[in-house]
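One thing: could you explain this record?
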Amino acid sequence: MTKHVFDEPYVAATILNRVFNDQSPQPAVYNNQVVMATSIGLNAFALSFGAAYAGLTEDQLSTRLLGNLGVLPNAGLQVAVRDYLVSVGKANVGIVALQLGQILSGLEQATGDQAVFNVAAVAWNKELELSYAFSTDPANDASGPPERDDQSVTGVTLSLTSGDDAISLTAPEAKFKSTANNDTFLAVIAGFLSSADAIDGAAGVDTLRATLAAGATVAPMLRSVEKVYVTAGAGAEFSAARSTGLVELWINGPDASATFSGVDLGTTVGIQNSVAGGGALTVNFANASGPADAATIALAHAAGNGEVIVSNIETLSVRSTGTSSGTLVNSARITAAQAEKMVIWGDQALTTAVTGARVSVIDATALTKTLGLTLAGTSGVTVAVNAQAAHRITLGKGADTLKITGLAGTEAKDINLGTSATLAASAIEVSGFASGIDAIRLDAARATAKAAPGATELASIAASASLLEATALAATTAGANKALAFRYGADTYILVNDSVAALGANDSLIKLTGVAALADGSWTSA
């Protein structure tokens, strides 16, 4: 790729998504990122992108970036990038990640010492092409592809035994010999994975799938095994304290309570395939003792309303993902006693109750599907969501602030004007809102001022025969590019009008359940 191509925002967004997350965002998220990069500039965008990973150490960041670039294992390079991050400051990790992606892309024909990166550069450029194609195809409504185009390097599948197994490239027996490709290691019988086992996955993206018996505690020695999937019995514990290079750690279920311990802050911990009545997963991260630790949890096909308990993490990133069917709703309770900020993002709907006395910010603006959020055991939280779905937000105690962005814009979810029932279902619904205490901040796609209707006009709206009729009258009363609060029935609604005065599908509607009167100072529109 030539220099001028690297200067394009769409290339920068693709590189950063792949280098940091090994993921291609769905089109709506990607388009927002490109717009942001165009608006603020590539360096500022890269800094903003990397800020979410500031809680990781320089060593963790180096391993994460180089691993996703496909150039590990390479101890010398890993140390060099780590030291470079120490030198420039890890606050600049976004720019470093962008530079690394650009440099590798230009090494397809490198000679001399850099010739060792020829193959990795070819694979990286192919990955960027596939990623860009995915993120610009409107038919794709879920993030992907999750892995590189590496089907040609599928490795071996090896099964662990009831004994003490040692798997590596140099193992004397073929049944214990890993490869430099994408290997899979199986311990599907409870007890076959133990603390006495040692697995060296070498190069490639390697996967371990294991079953733990109820009450068992295992701490195997894992090296360069990037993904681990655990099915655990009640009270089982998987310790990652002796694991290096672990990128993703998943639990199936959990159908009963289980624990992950010794987990590196750079490892994403996930719940998948949970069922109704699922148990709790307790996650204990290693070295999480500073004032600004950050970690990521993920939910995929997790509809069981289980619980994730995380301690000693100040910034918690929550990714909701799954299939591209659009029908999945992940559901889990999140308890994070020390969390101060929570970032919710992804491409699948999420229903969650957040418990955390220190939580002050919940940013869900990068979630492209419906959020059902209940604040439990919180006080004075700022919640930020976009208008791309009919979110359901239940506020908690204290003076909460809800910010809704992108209202009445092209990316906002269309309101359904078929009937009053369909209109209500397509509105953003807020429960637990206390007028005069809580606040709602509306950020429309274009400048939108608050309308100032008279008492007679508001009375006419309230007397309408249906919600649909009331909303239509509110639209013409407010006028183009205006927001108007009105009462209908036992609730207060806020209509955000687009550039057309008449009610249309591109307008946005917010329902404040049970609010009889909305104080003017409790809401703003811009």
